[in-house]
Amino acid sequence: MTQNGRYTEEISPKQEQFIAALVTGIAIGAAAKSVGIGERTAYRWLALDHFQVAYKKARRRLFDERLKVLRDDIDLALSTLKTIMINPETDASVRVRAATVWLTQSIQSAKIEDLEARITELEEKQ
Question: Structural domain tally of the chain?
Answer without folding.
Answer: 2
